[in-house]
From TrEMBL:
The gene is TSPAN7. May be involved in cell proliferation and cell motility. It comes from Myripristis murdjan. SUPFAM superfamilies: Tetraspanin. It is found in: Membrane. CDD domains: TM4SF2_6_like_LEL. This is Tetraspanin.
Amino acid sequence: LFLQFSCFCCFQVTGVVLLAVGLWGKLMLGPYMSLVGRGSADAPYVLTATGASIVLFGLFGCLAACRGRPWMLKLYAVLLCLVFLAELIAGISGFVFRHEIKGSFLNTLSDAVLNYNGLDERSLAVDDVQRRLRCCGVLNYTSWFSSVYFPVGGVPTSCCVSLSDCSSTNLRNSSLLPTRVHGQGCYNLVTSFIETNMGIIAGVTFGIAFSQLIGMWLACCLSRLITANQYEMV
């Protein structure tokens, strides 16, 4: 009983991890969410909801183990099965449709650069990405040449290598830009990071998902053990 109880508590830890990652994604990556597709923008909410569900189900599993109710343990196993299926479907969908996600990001980022005004949410998100990642434009700084902002303000100051060398005149001078702004585009930088870490992300996701299988197996074993003991007592 102590082993099963300890395992239920461990499953709660995985729920807390997912919950923390979801909240971190919402708080820290919030400015970038306007630059990705709708489905990807909902990812922090999905992680938060899944993590909260695992924590609540873990508490229910601990209660079921303490009270020794077979029907509660079976219900706990069913709940874990639902969480496992949801995580498995989400993980497979993210891997299969990763190219569509990259395409959506490319289209959204290109549109944000094209219609940049320095004031709205997507414009501020573009500035934040360029400043943090030290990149400029979609593929490179020339992406800004077709922006509605370029004839007025040139390339945004968030592209600058050094603000002291970025006057408004220099930012509108295409011949000076290669020495004033970052040369790498933001799209390739973001997508290469995703591709590089795809294995780690997939491994952690599926590791947490398959841990639910162990929980289901333990819950079923404990339920059968309690039922057998009850028959022996009768």
